[in-house]
Amino acid sequence: MTDAEWMRHAIRLAQRAEDQGEVPVGALLVLEGRCIAEAWNQPIQTHDPSAHAEIVALRKAGQVLHNYRLIDTTLYVTLEPCVMCMGAIAHARVKRLVFGAYDPKRGAVCHALQLSDAAFLNHKVEWTGGVLQADCAALLGDFFKARRERAKKSG
């Protein structure tokens, strides 16, 4: 499958998060052409601030592979990862990261921080951003717009 096809799958996972009232971010981990783990944002539902889609997918993949080192994997995620997620991605030794929407305010790959280039990390993650960017950004934008409109009506 192509990066765009995997990203479409991640978008469907993000929609599951939205259906559960979570910020719509989806992620999946691919090894040798097959999905070994998939997840979506779950911090509200699980009462766990670390339950971002990327972290949940990394945890699941670790269980599948019986190893925290996820060597030769590619992580697809609908939004540029935050600092917590980028640290976990590097620690897990993910080979490649592909994300959809850029996050200029909190993105830790190439925006607010550039952890993909950080000299202090012992693993460099290859990355590609902007895959189906418009679709990923629209999903997030629509979610937050609806949330603001609900807040106006109730408050």
Automatic annotation (TrEMBL):
Function of the molecule = Catalyzes the deamination of adenosine to inosine at the wobble position 34 of tRNA(Arg2).
Q: Which residues form the active site?
A: 54 (proton donor)
Instruction: Offer an example of a GO molecular function term for this protein.
Output: tRNA-specific adenosine-34 deaminase activity
Can you tell which superkingdom this protein's organism belongs to? Bacteria
The EC designation for this entry is 3.5.4.33
Keyword terms, alphabetized: Hydrolase, Metal-binding, tRNA processing, Zinc
Give the gene that encodes this protein.
tadA
Where do transmembrane segments lie in this chain?
none
The organism of origin for this protein: Methylomonas koyamae
**Protein name per Swiss-Prot or TrEMBL:** tRNA-specific adenosine deaminase
The coiled-coil regions, if any, are: none
The reaction(s) catalysed by this protein are: adenosine(34) in tRNA + H2O + H(+) = inosine(34) in tRNA + NH4(+)
